[in-house]
Design goal:
Structural class: alpha/beta
CATH architecture: 3-Layer(aba) Sandwich
Number of domains: 1
Number of helices: 4
Radius of gyration: 15 Å
Strand content: 15-25%
CATH class: Alpha Beta
Number of strands: 4
Oligomer: single chain
Largest sheet: 4 strands, parallel
Length: about 120
């Protein structure tokens, strides 16, 4: 069974995660056959490993991690690969992969431009 983890940075202010919660809810509505979990690098729960554990317990055999970051900063270049490798070591039977940061996708960048353009109307 395929699953997805929407992976964000995390913050001290609990309200910071509200857009990610909405993103997870939208995913569930639009892709109900695919399991989804949120995960955070720091300051919020669940961690990446906790999300993997939850998905494995729910029957996931293939997990794609989507970094919901604007770009590839130090966390994604240095910290994230270590976390991903640790999860892969603990769950070698799981096909664990990742995508680039969402902010590097042309469609996401275009959505931001379209958002800005609507603000000018």
């Amino acid at each position: 069974m395929k699953a997805i983890i929407l992976f964000g940075h995390g913050a001290r202010d609990a309200r910071w995660r509200e857009p990610l919660d909405r993103l997870g809810t939208l995913w569930k509505v639009q892709h109900p056959a695919t399991l989804v979990e949120l995960a955070f690098l720091e300051m919020m729960q669940p961690s990446l490993e906790e999300a993997v554990v939850s998905l494995v317990a729910s029957g996931a055999s293939e997990i794609v991690v989507v970094p919901v970051f604007f770009g590839q900063g130090g966390h994604l270049r240095n910290d994230f690969p270590l976390l991903l490798a640790s999860c892969q070591e603990k769950y070698p039977q799981i096909a664990l992969s990742t995508t680039p940061a969402v902010g590097e996708d042309e469609a996401v960048l275009q959505a931001i431009i379209d958002f800005g353009a609507r603000a000018l109307i």
